[in-house]
Write a structure and sequence with these properties.
This protein is mainly α and about 180 residues long. The protein has seven helices and no strands. The protein has helices spanning about 1-25, 35-50, 50-75, 80-110, 115-125, 125-170, 175-180. The two termini are about 25 Å apart.
């Protein structure tokens, strides 16, 4: 039981470390000053597109996949503990999402001009733009599922190809880590 608890703590710590690192990278992407009007336009665009809700949905989905993988490797983890972990992660993400949205503003400013942001606001206010916003979560979910299926279908052939390549590169006896990873 102690080993199981330790594995759960390690798994949870790994999940949180990944998200903290992602958050810190986003924080320092763009530190230049953005005008109040430009910032307001970007925030408006983020609200119109539902970026916060979509970000929360995607973050929770990725966290749940990591947790589910952890459970597959450690099937003795009680389902009640798994649900508690998922619930708490969802709560923390929801609480912290406004901070992430504030950090995303400079990223938009880096990639779009203020006129482009205004154009996106106009677009997302049209019927096609609204349909895009409404469809995007389901579209992203289906694309994610397609990507997972694609990855699973590709995985059996990937291991032998990687081993062959490493052998050609002179790593003949050093590719044991692949057996554990793939």
């Amino acid at each position: 039981m102690a080993t199981q608890t330790r594995r759960m703590r390690i798994g949870f710590s790994c999940i949180m470390a990944v998200f903290v690192l992602v958050f810190l990278q986003v924080r320092y992407v763009c530190a230049e000053e953005i005008s109040k009007e430009f910032r307001t336009d970007i925030v408006k665009l983020l609200k119109i597109t539902g970026a916060e809700g979509l970000g929360l949905q995607m973050g929770v989905a990725v966290a749940n996949q990591v947790i589910d993988s952890l459970v597959k490797k450690n099937p003795n983890i009680p389902s009640k503990a798994v649900e508690a972990i998922k619930d708490e992660i969802s709560k923390v993400f929801a609480e912290e999402m406004p901070k992430l949205m504030a950090e995303i503003v400079p990223i938009y400013a880096k990639h779009f001009t203020q006129d482009e942001v205004k154009g996106l606001i106009v677009f997302y206010s049209t019927p096609l733009g609204k349909k895009t916003i409404e469809t995007m979560p389901a579209l992203m979910n289906e694309c994610m599922q397609a990507g997972q299926a694609w990855g699973k279908a590709m995985a059996p052939g990937l291991g032998p190809r990687l081993e062959s390549r490493l052998k050609r590169e002179g790593f003949d006896n050093q590719n044991r880590f692949l057996e554990k990873s793939l």
